[in-house]
Write a structure and sequence with these properties.
Number of strands: 12
Radius of gyration: 20 Å
CATH topology of the largest domain: Rossmann fold
Number of helices: 9
Shape: elongated
Strand content: 15-25%
Structural class: alpha/beta
Distance between the termini: 66 Å
CATH superfamily of the largest domain: Response regulator
CATH architecture of the largest domain: 3-Layer(aba) Sandwich
Largest sheet: 5 strands, parallel
Order of helices and strands: HEHEHEHEHEHEEEEHEHHEE
Strand order of the largest sheet: 2-1-3-4-5
Length: about 240
Amino acid sequence: MLIFLIVIFVHIRAMSTRILLVEDEENLLKTIRLNLEMEGYDVIGAETGKHGLDQFRAGRFDLVILDVMLPEMDGFAVCRCIRLENREVPILFLTAKGSGDDKVQGLKTGADDYMTKPFHLEEFLLRVQILIRRGQRTEGGKEMDTFSFGGNMIHFSTYEITDRNGEMYTLSKREVMLLKLLIDRKNEVVSREQILEGVWGYDVYPSTRTIDNYILAFRKYFEKNPREPRHFHSVRGVGYKFTDI
């Protein structure tokens, strides 16, 4: 009987709803964490943006709650990095930055919801519940994550591409992350700093030439004439841009 109960307990813990809470104010982190745990959630806390991103990459989460003003990496940067690797996990910003521009920026980076501090606890818990349910409804029933342009097809989930001639290639994880970043910011110039932040992180600092080499590789894969690119552009002294024309 004891063994049976232990097995049930382990199963319940394994199936528990896990939330990543990234908040640099220690007292607020403890308060939010306590209230979420009282609702039955398993909460993992982090007090810096970089630590939060490391925690996300090390585990499985059903929801991410982010402050914006965080040490090391701000919440917008963390959200962008998460979205390059995972497009499905719900993300909720909980922050004192409440201007219209801040909300628009947060949603543009890939967040599903945005709440400002101070907040009503019951409303917060309800939004958490709704986001988790929404994520669970879409889990397991998603189509393959693909993007097509100019006769090319990218399969993000398998790291495979098919060019206009029907040839298939397998890309590295970093190549796929850079593709996602440029495609998500279609028609916008993405700076070298944003690429470093989103693709390489703060622990590795590739040279501009390294990023150029990735762009050259993309042109070989995807461009009809790599010397006259229509999709992958280098903007001297600024950054890089993807256009779908």
